[in-house]
Amino acid sequence: MNNLEICEALFSAFQDGDEEKVRSLCAPDLQGWQNDNPPMTLDKLVRFSMAVVDVVDNFRYEEAKRSATTTGFVEEHSVRGTLPDGSELDMRICVVADVQNGKVQELREYLDANAASGLIKALS
């Protein structure tokens, strides 16, 4: 797989809640960051992602714009769905990833924390 194919497969797996596929695309020692917060391990990232899919009805990525880089990929997308209180989730996110040996090694996610407030409340 090239870096764009890895990118597309990874976000498809996240959207589908496919933990096994996510793990197959990532290095076991992956490090992930959200807005420069402390790093997450692969296990923590998977748990967080599966929790989001569980709590957000009709969770989906839309309007994806992907670009390969020499070291990985960048994807901008909208995260959409319905929160447990009936409100709509609509966040624009940018993810920068480094890929080594065909596996995602690092993920850096940037988002508007205010737009995520309803999701944060739902996950609490």
TrEMBL record:
Coiled coil ranges (UniProt) are: none
Stored InterPro entries: NTF2-like_dom_sf, SnoaL-like
Q: Where is the SnoaL-like domain?
A: 8-106
Q: Name one Pfam family in it.
A: SnoaL_2
Query: What's the superkingdom here?
Result: Bacteria
Protein name per its UniProtKB record: Nuclear transport factor 2 family protein
Q: Which organism does this record belong to?
A: Congregibacter brevis
